[in-house]
Write a structure and sequence with these properties.
Distance between the termini: 58 Å
Number of helices: 25
Largest sheet: 6 strands, mixed
CATH architecture of the largest domain: 3-Layer(aba) Sandwich
Number of strands: 28
Shape: globular
Bound molecules: ligand MGD, molybdenum atom
Oligomer: single chain
Structural class: alpha/beta
CATH class of the largest domain: Alpha Beta
Length: 726
């Protein structure tokens, strides 16, 4: 549909949900004659949104018009120490710590302080911290990147979510592409591997259901009995962090029984012989010991997977939030190459489709501006999964040197809530509490992180600004149009960094670009107005604005991305044997190595339980957790630790008992939920705002800053704990 259509006194505006989710839904917003949004609905014309919204976004107007929205820039009052202010929404609490100021005052004060810190400690002592509060292309990373490059601020390595799996998939295939949702109904076997489809990717679910009506089986491999697992034909409750072993065991059986597609292997892959040699050691008996499954289950899964055609694997990022999660993703990603599943419509695998969106990112982010900064070069890179270490010695791992040089003196947070979502929360919060750290937070709500801010700036929601968006779960380019005026004095990320650049005296014209101009730059049109980006040549800025969503076009066809070669790896083939890893002196083949924090690791005697600090189905990471309607949907699991009856009994714990969970990094007080959703030896709890959790800390006070084998990413799911009744 067009950007906006008028029906009587109402306008219907095409927007795109910009929360960090594979689905990137088309959302039609009905706006009344007073300019107020009165309804949101999924666009029935969008083939993946299919006219429905998830439970979180169906209630979106509660968020947009929440009385808890930040409406004005705020400055910390003199003498008020940084730290938790108490529950959000308790009217007036924030005004005990902050005073409202004008945008002019806020921008002037922040620009001058940043420049002063840059002059005194060097610009790299300024650290931007952002992730995916919005995944709109402009809101996620555009004017902000320009500003921080020009300033010479540190760069951020954005590893908190998907780097391990993303890089691992690319080691095998060269590119993040996958089987589109629309092809899933043709599949006869759907393997959800570390993927809670119903919970975190619900717009794939109707396609799964359609496949099942056509006779497909759904198998879920997950250490937790998710909604998806409960709805499956077979739930395989694997031990956390052991997926590489299972994938190698499946390969062992497939090759032993000759179930591979040798023609596809010969034509498309590299390193079959050494891989065959490697998997010989992964017998079903050995893999059963590691994974907690039986040899018969492993054999059955291998046979079912290799002989059912088409078969598709929906891997999500759960597998790779583990110390050796990169290798696990690599090994799983090799399975459809071994069985030739890519040759069949409805077969293959899906992890992320983001590799298909080849924006003109140099024009959007302008890394060249770093040459005009006082550094005269690109700044150093700080890993966001090591924020504790970047800010304080408390985050230092055994055997590691002290934090960076120069020390971080300013932290600029937007699109993120690190005090809740970053690992090793106690180190992060100790860092945020440093009186010498200047902290600015651009936010919609008074989160765990704003409690530590010197300045809080009000941010818009996706209804209140214009953006362009790809997706990591489908192949549609979309334009999201501003539907309503900004609530209060909130402003978009683009506006904020454009203003700050001007206050800092940056005269490059790009700092004056409007969102519409930046959408054009992202599309990079030729003289006829058509995009020059691969796959977008049929798109113009006008056609996108008029149509809302337009599917990418691939010469090779999107439905079977790796049906034929070459693939963009060093050898041009799907790499079982990674030439990149070999060149780096690392093991070029997948192997199972137990995570340090696992029942097979050195600390298992002290901390015998493997902890899953999970996402909530009704929040988006920490987003939505402050809204009553969303909290009600999580009521049965809020502040609960799910523990198996055997582990509970061994500790004298009964359902509803107050319990303490701890390791060397922190302690959490929750209530026991005795449940068979987890196996013995595994406990689980949900991510929530720390200040809404009794004791003021959340699950990330227990997680570590250890990084993954590939991609230097966070390892939330490699965490050991002990539990006792209090
Ligand atoms: N409702 C909702 N939707 C979301 C989000 C949310 O918070 N809530 N978050 C969004 C974000 S940021 C992302 S990145 C995406 C992707 O999110 P997902 O990758 O789906 O995220 P997770 O829930 O972390 O992991 C999926 C499943 O992996 C399981 N798992 C954990 N460890 C292991 C393991 O060792 N092996 C196996 N096989 N499974 C394991 C978990 O129990 C979980 O059920 O979802 C997005 N969508
Ligand atoms: N224990 C545990 N920790 C985890 C995870 C887990 O599964 N378990 N998952 C990890 C993963 S996969 C991810 S992706 C990260 C997510 O970490 P974050 O990206 O920090 O995600 P959110 O918690 O959703 O916080 C995003 C914030 O951005 C704000 N925001 C939204 N839109 C805008 C905007 O346009 N402008 C500005 N300035 N702000 C905006 C929202 O209000 C929200 O507070 O968390 C990680 N942390
Ligand atoms: Mo994520």
């Amino acid at each position: 549909m067009a950007a906006a259509t008028q029906t009587g006194p109402f306008r219907i505006v095409y927007t795109v949900c910009s929360h960090d989710c594979p689905d990137s839904c088309a959302v039609l917003v009905t706006v009344n004659s007073e300019g107020r949004a009165v309804k949101v609905q999924g666009d029935p014309a969008h083939p993946v949104t299919q006219g429905f919204l998830c439970g979180k976004v169906a209630k979106y107007l509660d968020r947009v018009y929440s009385p808890q929205r930040i409406l004005h820039p705020l400055r910390r009052k003199p003498g008020i120490p940084k730290g938790p202010l108490g529950k959000t929404g308790e009217k007036g609490r924030e005004l005990e710590a902050f005073e409202p100021i004008t945008w002019d005052e806020a921008l002037a004060a922040i620009a001058s302080r940043l420049q002063q810190i840059a002059a005194t400690h060097g610009p790299e002592s300024i650290l931007p911290y952002s992730y995916a509060g919005t995944i709109g292309l402009l809101g996620y990373g555009s004017m902000d990147r320009r500003f921080f490059h020009r300033l010479g601020a540190s760069q951020l390595d954005r590893t908190i979510c998907a780097e391990a799996g993303g890089q691992a998939f690319k080691l095998v295939y060269g590119k993040k592409l996958g089987t589109p949702n629309e092809e899933f109904p043709k599949s006869r076997l759907i393997l959800a591997w570390g993927a809670n489809i119903h919970g975190t990717n619900v717009h794939l679910w109707p396609f799964v259901e359609q496949a099942r009506r056509n006779g497909a089986r759904l198998i879920v491999i997950d250490p937790y009995r998710t909604r998806t697992a409960a709805l499956a034909d077979w739930h395989i409750s694997i031990r956390p962090g052991t997926d590489a072993a299972l994938a190698l065991g499946l390969m062992h059986v497939i090759l032993r029984e000759g179930l591979q597609d040798q023609h596809y292997i010969d034509e498309m892959t590299h390193g079959f012989a050494p891989l065959s040699e490697r998997v010989r050691a992964y017998t079903p008996e050995r893999v059963a010991q590691i994974t907690g499954l039986t040899p018969a289950e492993i054999e059955q899964l291998a046979r079912e997977y290799a002989t059912t055609k088409p078969a598709v694997i929906r891997m999500n990022y759960g597998v790779q939030r583990s110390e050796n999660g990169g290798t696990a993703v690599r090994a799983i990603a090799m399975l459809p190459a071994l069985t030739g599943a890519w040759r069949h419509l409805g077969g293959g695998a899906q992890l992320s489709m983001s590799g298909a969106f080849q924006w003109n990112s140099a024009a959007i982010e302008r890394p060249d501006l770093a040459l005009a900064s006082p550094l005269g070069r690109l700044a150093r890179v700080v890993n966001m999964s090591r924020l504790g270490h970047a800010l304080t010695e408390l985050g230092t791992l055994p055997g590691e040197g002290p934090a960076n040089n120069p020390r971080v003196h300013a932290l600029f947070v937007y699109n993120s809530n690190p005090a809740a979502i970053a690992p090793n929360q106690n180190a992060v919060r100790a860092g945020l509490q440093r009186p010498d750290l200047f902290t600015v937070v651009h936010e919609q709500f008074l989160t765990d992180t704003t409690d530590y801010a010197d300045f809080v700036l009000p941010a818009t929601t996706f209804l209140e600004h214009t953006d362009i968006q790809g997706a990591y779960g489908h192949y549609f380019v979309q334009q999201s149009n501003q539907a309503i005026a900004p609530v209060g004095e909130s402003r978009s990320n683009v506006w904020l960094f454009s203003q700050l650049a001007q206050r800092c005296g940056f005269t490059e014209p790009c700092f004056g670009d409007t969102p519409e101009e930046m959408i054009r730059q992202a599309l990079n049109p030729d003289a006829t107005g058509h995009s020059q980006n691969p796959g977008m040549e049929h798109i113009t800025a006008e056609s996108l604005a008029a149509e809302g969503h337009i599917h990418l076009q691939f010469p090779e066809g999107a439905a079977r991305p790796f049906q034929s070669g070459p693939v963009p790896t060093p050898t041009g083939r799907i790499e079982f044997y990674s030439e990149t890893l070999a060149a780096a002196g690392e093991d070029p083949l997948p192997a199972f190595i137990p995570p340090t924090e696992s029942r097979l690791g050195p600390d298992a005697a002290r901390f015998p339980l493997e902890f899953l600090p999970r996402k909530a189905d009704n929040y988006m990471n920490s987003t939505f957790a402050n809204l009553d309607g969303h909290r009600k949907m999580e009521a049965t699991t809020n502040h609960r630790l799910e523990i198996h009856p055997a582990d509970a009994a061994a500790r004298g714990i009964q359902d509803g008992d107050p319990i303490r969970i701890w390791n060397d990094r922190g302690t959490l007080n929750l209530t026991a939920l005795v449940s068979e959703k987890v196996n013995p030896g595994v406990v689980a709890s949900r991510l929530d705002w720390a200040k809404l959790t009794p004791g003021g800390q959340n699950v990330n006070s227990l997680t570590s800053e250890r990084l993954t084998d590939i991609g230097q990413a966070a390892t939330f799911y490699s965490t050991l704990v002990e539990v006792a009744k209090v």
